[in-house]
UniProtKB/TrEMBL annotation:
Pfam families: Esterase (PF00756). Keywords: Transferase. This is Trehalose corynomycolyl transferase B. GO terms for molecular function: transferase activity. The keyword Ribonucleoprotein does not apply. InterPro entries: AB_hydrolase_fold, Esterase-like, Mycobacterial_A85_antigen. It comes from the Bacteria.
Length: 343
């Protein structure tokens, strides 16, 4: 060491310090690396139409992403929980008639993200679409032409969003399940029938599965008006438009022969889970669930006559509420993960 100059001694000490720092960092990474590795597909924000997704307040690794829709001319917020280990399966969860622009009810009224947190499937939860039935509408969705509402939800879900989650979350365009409650259940069966190359599985929880039956359109018209002044005529153009029948789950049964299908609806009779439900909501919940049960049974009868395989569940009690929907989500989790090979 006596042959080293003062300058070279300084360089020597700095080199030792750098090596020591590298060793220290490596030690920290080796300790922290194990738990981070399991969440590696979840712990970073993906790009979206406005820059980057943001962490959603619900937690559970859910990102809120603004996805651009050419068909609707605006960004659509989508809440997405990436698959735990980077799997390519996706589960689309569709909302009910009174969907809000704040959050998808599947992470608000029940916590689907918590339920699926341990698993290798990406949850895809679009926000908005009240009274849309997730269809492509022929005209402005409300009577208020001063605030025109352009609904092109089928195009968004089966083209625009499908491409986005493939690019940014690694979801295969052909390895998806789709589930929904009430209005979303109607759309889940319809979209799975029309796009069976995208959806390998469809689940309807208290959906309306015979929307072109006598009287059904009148009930839909009243429901859409009550949900915010939506105009049923703008959905398909007229009562006799072929798209009205094409978008009825009752007429998509033949396209579901190679799809795993699950349908459920309760009786509309209050049960133990409804004990503390307000009486005024219980009345409407009973009526809505009874209608869902009737239409699902009609769908069931036709599907059996056509030899289409499916599973069904008709609880003896239950209203049209989140006790029913959330219970079905939990009950079918194993089925979804089995079919999608996403445990």
């Amino acid at each position: 060491m006596k042959f080293l100059t003062a300058t070279s001694m300084g360089l020597y000490r700095r080199a030792i310090a750098v090596v020591a720092a590298i060793i220290m960092v490596a030690s920290v990474v080796s300790v922290a690396g194990a738990p981070k590795a399991e969440a590696a597909n979840r712990d970073w924000l993906r790009p979206d139409a406005t820059g980057h997704c943001t962490w959603d307040s619900v937690g559970w690794w859910v990102q809120r992403c603004d996805v651009w829709s050419d068909s609707m001319g605006r960004t659509i917020p989508v809440q997405i929980q990436p698959a735990k280990r980077g799997g390519n399966a996706g589960l689309y969860l569709l909302d009910g008639l009174r969907a809000t622009n704040k959050t998808n009810a599947w992470v608000n009224d029940v916590n689907a993200a918590r339920l699926y947190e341990p698993h290798n499937i990406t949850l895809v939860m679009p926000v908005g679409g009240a009274a849309s039935f997730y269809a492509d509408w022929n005209g402005p969705a409300t009577y208020d032409l001063g605030q025109s509402v352009n609904y092109q939800w089928e195009t968004f879900l089966t083209q625009e969003l499908k491409g986005y989650v493939q690019r940014q979350f690694g979801v295969s365009p052909t390895n998806n399940s789709i589930a929904g409650l009430s209005m979303g259940g109607t759309a889940a069966i319809t979209l799975a029938g029309k796009h069976n190359d995208q959806f390998r599985q469809a689940l309807s929880y208290s959906g309306y599965l015979a929307t072109s039956m006598p009287g059904a359109q009148t009930l839909m018209r009243l429901a859409l008006l009550d949900a915010g002044g939506f105009n049923l005529n703008a959905m398909y153009g007229s009562m006799i438009n072929p798209r009205r029948f094409e978008n009825d789950p009752f007429n998509q049964i033949g396209n579901l022969r190679n799809t795993d299908v699950y349908v459920s609806a309760a009786s509309g009779i209050p049960g133990p889970a409804d004990a503390n439900y307000p009486w005024n909501l219980a009345i409407s919940g009973a009526i809505l669930e009874a209608v869902a049960m009737t239409s699902t049974r009609l769908w069931d009868t036709k599907a059996r006559a056509m030899g289409v395989n499916f599973a069904s569940d008709y609880p003896a009690t239950g209203l049209h509420n989140w006790a029913q929907f959330g219970g079905q989500l939990s009950k079918t989790k194993g089925r979804v993960l089995d079919v999608m090979n996403a445990w």
